[in-house]
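Please review this one:
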Amino acid sequence: MNAAFLNTTFADALNAYNEGNFAGALEHMDALLTLQPEGGPNWFALLGNIRFKLGHKEEAGDAFLRESSTSPDKAGQYLKLAITLFASCGASAKVRLLSDKALMHLAGDAAVMHQIGEACLAENDLPGVERVLDLVDPANPQHVVMKCAYHRQKGDLEALWRTLSQGVVDCPNDVYLKAARYAEARVVLDFDAMREYERIMEAPDAPLANALLGGEVALNRLFWCRKEAIIARPSYDSNVLLAATDALSLLRHPRRPISPAGRRLKIAYLSDDFRQHAVMAVFSEVLKLHDAARIDLTLLCHSPPEARGWQRLNFPQRLLDCIVPIDGKPTVEVLDIIRRREIDILVDLKGHTAGARLDIVNLADVPLKVSYLGYPAAVTGAELDYAITDAFITPESSRPFYNEKLCLLPDTSMPNAALETCIPQPAKRADYGLPEEKFVFSSFNAVFKISPQTIDLWGEILASAPDSVLWIRCDEAIARANLISALAARGIGADRVIYAAATRSYQEHINRVALADLSLDTLPYNGHATTTDMLRAGVPVVTMRGTTAPSRMSEGLLHAVGLPDMIAANETGYVTIARTLATDKALYRGVRERLARSRLTSPLFDPARFARNLETAFELMADRARSGLPPEHIDVAALACALPVTEVAA
């Protein structure tokens, strides 16, 4: 090929590029590379710039990568351009494959090392991340976050906590890292850090507190907050939701009218928890018992594909036929499904929890939108009409802190399977490392619910009942060490703490928890499903009356099983109830016998009754809508007895 012709064509491409004619420049370069695929001096550098100007980032990266091989003296420069472009368009596999070259040419470039680390994380290449951990910038918050993600993915909570703690020192002005560390403190049970956070929040309008609240995951707020007004404030989740809703605002349609009276209500539950999950552990029996004469049911399921196996094992065919898989479907497609199915009431079961798709709730054209079960607080930022709850969890004083109107179920708002579906079978304390003669306090709540207030009260209880032990689910070594240290500061030895391991089945879990004498509730975020598990097993639970919905959950459940005397009015009462039951055998025996009787007839374990109450709630909402009335607070009247059931239609 004539060198002059090639040089002229390259010059034409360069001139077109400089004149802003990027399409013309690309035509010249394509012609050149057709004639000489191996390229020439600076050919791929020019091609990379052309592609970049045209918005073809990945192709630009490919070109710069080729140039790095043909221009050894500038290999690092072009390699960096290639990696940066690949990273910017999510081509993590390509970035990962360049790790060796990057370490050879760019090991001193912390930004590139960070990009390599992020790519290896995305490709689940933990050894690849480890190679660059010490080469990133410890004073760059994004680099610290990457290191934390590595430690979390590896399951090394101690290293994660050390990295976060050092990160807030090296990046003192980064609010995100501060918020992440305070959140992680609950996972590793660093009570000093938890107290520090609570002291900051004593002045919630101060600049630091306000910034932390704005970046706080909504669910994390429930673990420490005792004021409903603060819980209802914007959070990270509500801010992200509003941004997502605004970005998709063109998909919004006006609300449709509700279906006419006489037609079955079309109810759709929206969740990714139609799988082995705490929500389904308590709610699946109610789903099975929905009355087909009243409810036309849809399950909008965005559970991962592997959940299908669990569904086939646990749902009858008539319920399987109600499932509409929406995992991976874009919001616009889900909105169309809802519209075509003419859903009357969309019930979100997630709230501000991981995996929620509240943008669907905000944009759907359904007549009524409802929040229930998955998140025990106001779902700030979601355009909801009602929250289904009960009078114990949300008394009248809660109303000002909810944009939703409160629909109060009778008996309880906590669903459950019938008692006979899982009755505790005989088990031996020795099989679980429990002493035969000691009084066993237990807590099977998630460890991140153990607040400084909770550990202080547990320490006082254990000190006042020396012939007792604490049986607890706490798996991580760092959390165990911090728990033991906190109790030791209160004079409680490590030999009085017994750790519970995971069980193979729910039945085994119920069998073993029945071996406990008394369950100690967590404050201010109570047990929910955990409290019902203990009551199902016949184990009394002591709690304290709270000031927020999460801190009133156990109060409502104890009323439902006829044990209001297990609800303390204050901290002194909480300790007194626990100590008295641990030391007065006759009194304790009376409470346990009372629970054994009451749970047999309690509405807490009557899913058919619960389903009727829930259906009545939906009908009362619909009646208001049909009358042209806006949503208003609703009190669902208690049933005298359960109504006959027509099974969910196939």
Summary: The chain has four domains: 3-159, 186-245, 249-409, 419-602. Residues 249-409 form a domain with the Rossmann fold fold (CATH 3.40.50.11380). The first helix runs from residue 3 to 18. The chain has a mean pLDDT of 96.
